Amino acid sequence: MRNLFNPDNPVMNFIGKLGDALWLNILWFVTSLPIFTIGASTSALYTVTLRMARDENSGVTAAFFRAFKENFRGGTPIGLIMTGAGAALGADWYILSHLRLTGVAGTLGFACLIPLLIAYLATLVFVFPLQAWFRNTPLHMIRNAFLISVRYLFCTLLVIGIHFAVFYIAIHYFTPLIFLGEGFCAFLSSYLLRPVMDQIALILTAVFLVGYGSFRLITRPNVLVSVGLLNTTLGSSSKSMLTDGYLNTLTERGTRDQVKLTGPLFISGDPGSDAYEYAYASSLKLQAEITDRSLDVVLLDKNSLAVLEDNEYLMKLPASIRSSSDLYAVSLEGTSFSQQAKADGTMYAGIIANTKNKEQAARQTCTAA
Question: What pTM was estimated for this model as a whole?
Answer without folding.
Answer: 0.66
